[in-house]
Batch of 2 targets.
Target 1
Amino acid sequence: MNETLAAFSFFGHSLVITGWKILGYGASLLFAGRWVVQFVASRRHGRPTMPGLFWYMSIVGSLFLLAYFIWGKNDSVGILSNLFPTGVALYNLYLHETHKRKPHPADPAETTK
């Protein structure tokens, strides 16, 4: 995964692409893309909401970023910055999955059904 797959030079700077960087780029896109999912879900519901896909994308993105920072880059700052969100996302996914079938008493959309 550390072998150079491509190298680019522009404006005096070089960019070397490795397997680890591809994993890191993909994980960053996945982790950032979860906000697009949240935005679309909120627009559909007409109120802020966090769909289950948001939490799955958070977990997978965080785990991939952890792998990148542990084995690809050996960066303790990146490791620490992704450990906490992974744990929070796992807990929130647990809450989402265990309570998604129970109507919330304060939700007027659920009480009119």
Target 2
Amino acid sequence: MKVTIRTFLLSLIFISQTLYAIEVERLYQAEVIANSENEQDKNIAIKQALSIVLSRILVGDNALNNQTVKSVLSNAIHYVNEFQYSLITNDKNDNARLMRVVFDEKLLIDVFRQSELGFWNEIRSRTLVWLIVEKDGEQQFFDATLMPEVDAAMNKAARQKALPILYPIQDLSEQRILTISDVLSAYSDHLLDVSQRYDVTSTLAGKIVYKDNCWQAEWTLYFDERIEQWKSQCGLINEVALNGFQGVYENLSTYYAVKPSSKIINSVVLKVSNIKGKLELAKVINYLDSLSMVKTVTRVLDEPGYTIYRIFYQGARSALSRVLAKDHVIRAEDYTKQNADIVKYKLMAEIF
């Protein structure tokens, strides 16, 4: 089986896309339902929208119970840049409106600079989602076209937590080597081997079950060489999906969080070997630039065997080294001192 998987991965190497991280759009925007356009209902809806925004950028246990957060929420209207209403169909309330609220990013970041909470910015890694859906005792791979209710709930939950996700393409080659049992198995090597084609740093495997007029789920997240598992209790499909992505957010945001008060910009020179052409040059630049800690990347010059880059980054040097080690795109050479001003790395050929 290992030979088959290796052959499969090699056959896909040229169509695999670089998906290390993307910039999440509308991070400071949320949509909620306002019961009407009167002042009281407007303020309630704005507070709900701000709660959603804060829950997707702040990191820490019970962040919404933090005193600074409570103060911000009680004055939510002061952080609004703009809002607008649109009509919706609501059989119970003809006055109900869909309300889109955009908040002031700078004001919010400034107010949290002195808090103890971490902050996750808009550069976020994609998470690959393997999903099994069980209904009437029958298990199937998730299919958006056949399961619109599940599809809508998953997409809504991912947007609410501002998590970029992608689903496996499940082409014939993939279907031949991966089964439902592989996704649900306690032994993850097979699933993670197949997942390598998608160039992701986190993989979520889930099983959603509809039984006794409610939904429930089991989730497993593979990230940072760790496995985290949790369950979603019986409830509506939107609640179950949101609980799934809440678990993903808690794990990833804790890893990538920075302090808003951290203003110091540091720099380091990276000397990268094994770069043989324009494709490799572009891969390294794009990868380094995608890291949330990295502010700028500049290719300085070439010397025999190495291409030299200077990067400016925000945060601890140890955190940068940890991210580089985890992603396996460039690998530190054995004799390199990680706290040196110039660090030597080797571009890993297998990413191509």
